[in-house]
Fold:
Amino acid sequence: MSILIKNVLLKDKSCDVYIEKNRFSKIARDLPLSADIVIDGSNFAILPAFYNTHTHAAMSLMRSYADDIELFSWLNDYIWPLENKITEEDVYQGARLAALEMIKSGTVFFNDMYWHALGTARAVKEMGLRADISLVLIDAGDPGRSAEQLKKANEVFKHEKEFPERIRFTYGPHAIYTVSEKTLRECSNLAKKENRRIQIHLSETASEVADSLRNFGKRPVEYLDSMGFLGPHVTAVHCVHLTENDRAILKRRGVSLAHCPASNMKLSSGAFDYPALKKAGIPVMIATDGASSNNNLSMLESMKFAALWAKSLSGDPRTLPAEEAFAMATRYPAEAMGLDAGRIEEGALADCLLINLRHPTLLPSGNLITNMVYSANPECIDTVICDGNILMQKRIVPAEEAIIEEAEAAFQRLLSR
Ligand SMILES: [Zn+2]
Structure:
């Protein structure tokens, strides 16, 4: 399969982009090539697509189910009781709804943590996205449940060969306050042995830090480091409450950090200190978190929140400029997640967006990246290509109506169960 995009704007210059199989093959002016699909790129700019480094896709089914509630009550009184009843079919329906929303807002990859991971994987396979999918591990601090938890993850991994390469299975221990040290240690050892990534919620709230100091005599980052858990294969999610020593540890271990500005603000988790992380040289990537704590999966909106919040906290509008926010949603996460993507270059994986330059939020035609971060909404994204396949064109995603209707029905079934 080949795609030729003619006369598209790439970094202020018009050119042709030729995609062969799943990579950008040639990028130049007036390419003398034919292709299976030819797209007229006039009035479009080509940009890297978005890589969402932390979400719980199937929680789209719980959007607006419990809002404006403190984190631990939100989890204990609302989310976890509903999740006790959730089935793999519900997860599939929720993840399909999430994938639809992600495609329509320009995201081609997400790093997921949730129950019934095979339901999510089936949705991703059908919808054509990339994903790192982890089965969430929670043993409620009971080391006796460690083997059972890891067995469940292993059951999921056995199905890996049924899915294309763009879907990878990873480890997802929920947090230090829900997972015992035994499970954390074993999970870490297995991830290293099997060469899998890990994601974990870390230092999200002040009470998580206080509990960690009381229970383990260490802050959350120190506690994980003391068991050899941290490394370049780890995505630490949130990291709102860090000391200088915590940041030094994360830097030393090469950990990547997923910043979820909308979720942090909505749950009043605290003041994420972007300037301090930047100074410490820690890679920061932007993520949405799940749709029940955001409540959408738009990376456009999360880029803007990240930039505005960083400026607001620092008192300096030069903090986290638009170019940096855009890189934190595209190039940086692709690199951190080990994907040869996140850039429009010959040889890179063919993931990209065609942006409608005539959309009102992008006019007049000034700085496109600044407009994407501060002004754009998803409607300006006309076409989404992932792994050399067109997932959306003219804003149409196949089977959209069926996905919407089936997700609504799945939510009603879940509520009445
Ligand atoms: Zn989360």
Summary: The first helix runs from residue 71 to 83.
